[in-house]
Amino acid sequence: MKDMKELENLIYKIDRFITESRIERYKEALQFLRILDNDSDREVKAEVIKLESLLLKKIEELEELLKE
pTM score, two decimals? Predict the structure, then answer.
């Protein structure tokens, strides 16, 4: 029983680490997109806006998951 509890705790810590890492990668991607946002091409700007929106939504979802 103790081994199962330790295993569950380890899985929880690993999941949390993975989630935190994903959040950091998404934030780095946002920084890159903000550089592209200065592009004069309207199509590029439109895609940047879409991708920023998706990344922000995903970051929010993952941060909520960490609160649980």
Answer: 0.79
Phi, psi of 40 (to 5 degrees): -85, -15
Tell me if 36 sits within 8 A of 48, measured CB to CB.
Answer: yes
Q: What is the DSSP letter of 38?
A: T
Residue 45 identity (one-letter amino acid): K
Tokens at residue 51, please? 């991708």
Task: Show pLDDT as tens, one digit a residue, over the chain (68 residues).
Answer: 788 999 999 999 999 999 999 999 999 999 988 888 777 888 888 888 999 999 999 999 999 999 87
Count of residues making up the chain: 68
